[in-house]
UniProtKB/TrEMBL annotation:
Entry-linked Pfam families: Fe-S_biosyn
Residue span, Core domain: 1-97
This protein's name: Iron-sulfur cluster biosynthesis family protein
Originating organism: Brevibacillus gelatini
Residue ranges crossing the lipid bilayer per the database entry: none
Amino acid sequence: MRIKLTKEAVDQLQKATRPVRISGELVGGCGMTVEYALWLDEATPQDQTIQVEGLTLLLDPETIAYIGSETLTIDYRPQQGFRLVTPEQIVAYGLSLKERWG
């Protein structure tokens, strides 16, 4: 997977104290709904680790499958938070960077 970061996203993600996990989790409901999050986390053996702009980004195989695209752009807008965007769609918006277990 190729990840692009906008300048605004880089500025915000550089504040991270640990690697940033892009997480997609299948949640209940009528159909396939995926809830995305950005976590401060540590790598696991199954993760794909991607270095971009001096930042370490982590994705597990399920999240990569849910995104369903070879390219993902992470953007940040001050009033809206982070957005995950593929060439085909806006995957998620309104995300904030959070501690995984806190």
